[in-house]
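To whoever is on call:

I kicked off a structure prediction for a single chain this morning and the downstream step that reads the tokens threw a length-mismatch warning. I double-checked the sequence; it's 613 residues and nothing unusual in it as far as I can see. Pasting both halves so you can look.
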Amino acid sequence: MYKQQNVRLEADGSIRAFDRVWRFDSQDAPSLVLSGGETVLFSSAVSVQTRPVTTGLGQGSRTVYADLPGCRDFTFETETLVSDTDGHVDFTFSVQREMGLRLREVRYPAPVAADDSGAYAVLNTMQGQLLPVDWPQKLFDKLPFDGQMCSESAYMPWWGEVTPTGSYLAWVRSPWDTKYSITHPAGGPTRIQARHLPSLGNMRYQRTVSFFFLPAGSNYLDLCRLYRKLAEEEGKPVTLREKAARNPNVARLKGCCVMHVAGKTHVSPDSRYYHQDDPSRNETHVPFAHWEERARRLKEMGVDRLYMHQDGWGQPGYDNQHPDYLPPCRELGGWEGMRKLSETVEELGYLYGVHDQYRDYYLDAPTYTPDCACRSADGSIYGHAIWAGGKQNYLCASLAPGYVKRNFEQLLAGGIRLQATYLDVFTCNEADECDHPRHRMTRRECLEYRARCFHYLTSKGIAPSSEEVNDWAMDSQVFCHWAPYLTDTAIAVPLFNLVYHDCVMIPWKMEAGEWGIPEGTTGFLHCLLNGGMPYMSDQAEGEALEENIRQWKVISELHLHVADEKMTDHRFLTEDRQTQRTAFSDGTSVTVCFSDGRFEICYPDGRKVTDCE
């Protein structure tokens, strides 16, 4: 970690760092948002007492706020502390006296106003993006999961802004209990603010956002490198090499294409997806034996590395009756059919895994009881009927490890050969909390329980995956379903891969127009640029299948080289940003041109692979 010089607090609350002054937007001042939606500004407190503070860690100021309108018995404190070690600045909020006040969120500190010409925001919305301060389109009317960190809304718990005279990185230290807002009207400017949430109804511990400052000439690559160092200090990154040392099946995933295959579909009449006009679509079956034939055919066509992800393998059908999904579906071939499929996949040198779900908790599951559902602090149990299985609550994650072990021990005892598997939504959806007195759980504990599920699978030699990727899971997650770009993306940049490429494998859909693939680009080129894994179609035939296999062969060779490597560089080679290049820590570089589909891969030994081959 570098030593920062000349970082200090100014009398007006701004920060001077590397001869640049960073100011906060007074139009979006720190505030409390009460449970009823009322906003109370910090500055409305009758009593505001500020004093300097010096500790063994740094120097700054501390302010106590008391006697707020409508909150007479509520007292809280903010502290701004400049670290003596590396010059970063901590902005900390803590409650001194709560007295029953129900908070929805705390918006603190105020957003930075980095409105210089040429400035841009660095945003970890899914895979990542850069947002120029004057970007002409309005963005972020709505963030996924209302901006909840540790979800699809923020794969990593930081943001930054880069200006011609310096940059900053803002790191949220308790992201499981934090949302954030991004506002960007047409033409700018951009404002980003942390929104700290109560835990089980109370602001029971202090919340900190740490700002790190970099000098003029720094850019988004420097911010990614800085965050990797910070993450390493906390032990978050566990590399694929380290994971493979514990589980050999991790290494076997390198160079694989990913093929999702269907089993039983059953759509409940109370599901949002029920087909009223065509009931035949609500019940379909694809036997296990069908996928044996497909796997053999792909092997004959030269596909020697494949991971088969089995959907809808349980008796109830895809997204039905979880966590009580066993036994294997009788209409598909039952235990014998699934066992034979897993054996065939293994004999072909492929890997086999299953889709499973330990958050959606269906009311018609045989062992369902509301006592196992997540309960809110007000005693209510949230439910909906979106997915195929219909009415559901959320299973308390404290119980998920037990259900995972119960089900997978049965699968393994039944002779199902599993080299990898998929636990749905864990790294995509927000963390839950539960106030049931027998299994009370904070959001932070929820993430810890989800990670325990991954660790159990690893102990059985099963490489764990989930829907997307997330910073909190980099000690245990091996691969995912996808990790593409948010729909509201200004300039797509692979920020997550620039931090964590050597820790997790990311598959990409191949075509243009796929969800998460920016308009005018293809997933194939993004997969190459990111050193990722390709998808293999489960239905394509003829020229389409041959093209899919051709793409896989190019990507597979690249992935075998760089899967374990850090992504060390990303840059735009043309003003229109259509031509881009990435580099990896083994010396491999990849150049793609989205405008005409060309690519060039340069390997460390001097060999080149292009679209012409």
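Update from on-call: the warning came from a stale cache, not from the record. Cleared it. Sanity check on the structure: Residues 300 and 544 are 16 Å apart (CA to CA).
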